[in-house]
Structure formats: C-alpha cells, structure tokens
Design goal:
This protein is an all-alpha fold. Helices cover about 75% and strands about 0% of the residues.
Length: about 190
C-alpha cells in the first residue's frame, strides 16, 4: 500500500497515519527507555571508576575534585566543605567493592521501565490519533487531537510544577499549553 502509484483512499490514508503514529511513538519510547535505563548505568560505571582511582591513590587531586563535585551536586548538596570532606574520608576508609572489570547490565526492573515507557508513548499516540478515527476527514478531529495533546502536556506541566514547589502551577500549565499550541501550529503550517 505504501509504495503504490495511486492516490490512497481516505481509509488507506487514515491507516497509514495510525501505523506511522504508533511506529514513531514506539521508536521514541524505545529511545527514551534505553537512555533512561542506560544513562544512570553509565553514571554508575563512571562513579565506580573514579572511586577505584581514588582508592588506588588517595592523594589524586583530580579524583578528589570529581568526588567532591559528585557529593556537592547530589544528596550532599546542603553540606559544607568540611562535612563533604568527611563523606569523602568515609569513601577512602571503605574497602573497594567494585571489581575492575565489572559489567553494568540492565536488570528486570530496568527492562520493565523501558517497556513501560514504550507502552506510555504508544498509548499517547493512540489518544492523539483517536479523534481522526472517530471523525475521519473532519476539522473536529484535528481540533480534538490538539486539545488532547495540550491537555496531556498541561497535566504533565502541572505535576512537575507541584513537585518543584512552584507557587503558581497554573502559570506553568498555561505556558506549556501555549508552547504546545505554537509548536503544533508551526508544524502543521510547514506540512509536518
């Protein structure tokens, strides 16, 4: 169907749109899932590499700087210099537990997280494509699809604003909704 030389019927065009929407979102779900699972694994491997370097040479200024920065930007961000130094001393006193050649692999929970991101992305595509199935060829489909996308985006912005202790989460919702509307309008205007 995709490589036919005739103009697709309305039903065929709708089918193409649904297949493409689900395929694109499934692909982005895999990309998001892969990076959210393996990004922290890379950070863990880097942290272990720096700790091993510090255990080999406790006077290594660069390793000390990296670990101090890691402590200062992590859960120890509210600690002053001397307290961060005590945390680093605790690292130095502990026995190295990470072997040099350790492989960092995804476990069952990581795989489930990856799959959940794929599922969420595909469901989002379904919600946004559904109006085109419900009202094929109608302008209502486009308006309803955009309204659903903006509502979902607004809900996500509201949740983030609450989690970040913003005083006026509705402002975040309105700003994000406006951004989504502008992006969707420009995308539509440029034929995407």
């Amino acid at each position: 169907l995709m490589f036919g030389f005739t103009e697709p019927t309305r039903t065929e065009a709708l089918l193409y749109m649904v297949i493409i929407a689900f395929s694109v979102n499934a692909t982005w779900g895999l990309i998001d899932g892969w990076t959210s699972v393996y990004g922290p694994k890379v950070n863990e491997a880097d942290d272990d590499r720096i700790l091993r370097r510090l255990w080999r040479d406790p006077s290594d200024a660069k390793a000390r700087e990296w670990i101090d920065d890691d402590i200062a930007t992590g859960t120890g961000r509210n600690l002053d210099g001397p307290r961060r130094q005590r945390v680093m001393d605790t690292y130095l006193e502990s026995e190295p537990r990470v072997p040099e050649g350790q492989e960092y692999r995804a476990d069952r929970n990581d795989i489930l997280s990856l799959l959940s991101l794929v599922i969420v992305e595909v469901l989002m595509a379904g919600l946004i494509v559904f109006p085109f199935i419900l009202f094929p060829g109608e302008v209502y489909a486009l308006m309803l699809s955009r309204a659903i996308a903006i509502t979902i985006s607004g809900a996500i912005a509201y949740w983030f604003a609450l989690r970040l202790n913003r005083r006026h989460p509705i402002i975040w919702v309105l700003m994000f909704a406006l951004l989504m509307f502008v992006v969707m309008t420009l995308s539509w205007a440029f034929g995407w």
